[in-house]
Amino acid sequence: MRILFKTSYLDDIRLFQHEGQVLWYSLLALAVLAAPWLLPVFYVGELTQIFILAIAGVGLMLLIGYTGLVSLGHGAFMAIGAYTNTYLITKGVPFLVAFPLAGLAALVAGIVIAVPANRMSGIYLAIATLAFSQIVEQVIVRWEPVTRGFQGMAVPPPDLLGVPLTQGWQLYYLALAVLALVVLGAVNLVRSPTGRALVAIRDSEVSAQSLGVSLFRYKTAIFALSACITGLAGALLAHRMRFISPDAFNYLMSVQLLLMVVVGGLGSIHGAILGAVFVGALPQALAIMREYLPSAIGRTPGLEPGLFGVVMVLIVLFEPLGLYGRWLKIKALFDYFPLYRRATFKRQRSYLKTERVR
Amino acid sequence: MSLAETMTAPAAAAKAPAAGDAARAPALIEARSLSIAFGGIRAVDDVSFSVARGEIFAIVGPNGAGKSTIFNLISRIYEPTGGRLVFEGEDITNVAPHSIAGRGIARTFQNIELFEHATVLDNLLIGRHCRARPNMLAEILFTPRVRREELRHREAVEEVIDFLDLANYRDQRISGLPYGVRKVVELARALCAKPKLLLLDEPASGLNTEETEEVAFWIDDIKNDLGVTVIMIEHDMSLVSAVSDRVLALNNGRTLALGTPAEVQSDPAVIEAYLGGEAS
Prior knowledge:
- The complex is a heterodimer of chains A (358) and B (280).
- With 358 residues, chain A is an all-alpha fold.
- Chain A has a domain at 40-261.
- Chain A is built from 15 helices and 4 strands.
- In chain A, the strands form 2 sheets. Chain A has a two-stranded antiparallel ribbon.
- The two termini of chain A are 43 Å apart.
- Chain B has 280 residues and is an alpha/beta fold.
- In chain B, strands 6-7-8-3-9-10 form a 6-stranded mixed beta sheet, sandwiched between helices.
- The longest helix of chain B has 21 residues, at 144-164.
- Chains A and B meet through helix 7, helix 8, helix 9 and helix 10 of A and helix 4, helix 5, helix 6, helix 7 and helix 8 of B.
């Protein structure tokens, strides 16, 4: 195992804790930068999709995994981002202006939902956000002059300073750049006072409040930020799909995002990325696997969604900490090899908490 | 706990003159006929007390007497139905709950309200929240100013870690810590806020005799070295008479007695509340 010898408080603040991490993350960065040259066009497109999902996943992770506020309506923020971006671009606004405005529109929507959401938590908040996403979907259907309703809208390719990005690999790098910036921003946020305040709200609202954390302020701010990031992901997804219609961002999208963060592992940015990779790549992996199965099984209709569901259920059942939690366990096993105990990560009944002041 | 035994404790008698001095000093916090009713139950009924700067003030009473409710009123979790709270000459009866810490009042909870899924260090850093002015945009960019502030908070936290001897647990998650350590971490978190007034809700509950003695030393140090005024709720009368200057005894939300530990313990109403009518 690696023993860290810390000589400065900065050792606990910096992004990479040791050289090993620098090495592995550099290799990962090289791999994703080189991917368009090494992979067939189809897979580059799939990876783009995964990156876009990961952006939305990071946004949702800040809300669910760090602050403990469940949202079943993040598909709506994606829709708001996608439609704002597309509408502005069709009106001749350059992508570099339309894209941040798409995020801003989602941010405003996030504040609008956050103000009443401050009074709710748990299952009630989930229902309220689900209702919100239904409202947004209906607005998109009815507001035909802007959204063209069920006809949908064709999405022109994004342009960077007048250069249209029509190729798959161009969109790939665009999504990668946005993902990298979003991840960096999120990691910065969670290692600073605001990030700790969010965790405090998640673990004990009463004690967070008594330490000076304004519940209203932080819940509203994180709702807005989460919506903004998800809106940016929606804008990119519109470019990837090249055509948007109201049903592209329905509740199934929201559920998919929720699945991503839960399967990836709540309470870590790694989890959001792993979840996106898993949810984005699994259906494809299952489709490929299908070709190698005996034809009696391989030709069964609905095999992929079925298997997808089974895998999800198994993960939630046997690894409540998600993929990242599993990775931490494997790492601990190697770090402490002969001494590793299964009980290290065992969830124990926490000591009695004050229920009365809730 | 035998009352007769602690009544004659010499430590309690020696505290008496100090209490007299404290009573003359200007009050740090004052409760004026504080009341709260939940439905028909008057949990706190017309309770008044004032605590001077540098005093250790204990609140005792049987279960359900309204002790923790007074703390929840001071930290503004509950809305009082009557009376006023004055801290440093300023009325805090109607201020926002999250502004209490910034004014200099920190507290611990009866049943430990730590952030379970964070490390000890993170818990203590959250204790610094009321001394920070976070700017989300600067934090997302992690500007040099944010980094400097982080280092400053870390130094303040390390002082508390040294003070309460928590260095061994710094990087451990709360969910894996034993009960006694959690109590200390919660005390440390409250101290990280650099409070003027510390509210300790049963600091010795669930601790063994040795740990309780340790808590007594710490409370003395908190008062003498850090200059923090302490209000504590405690059942352990040996701890109360060892450290506190004055004691407020409550029963059914009403004041039974207020005075030095010796006075309160010999008060007939207190003895009656604890031991029943015949004892007096």
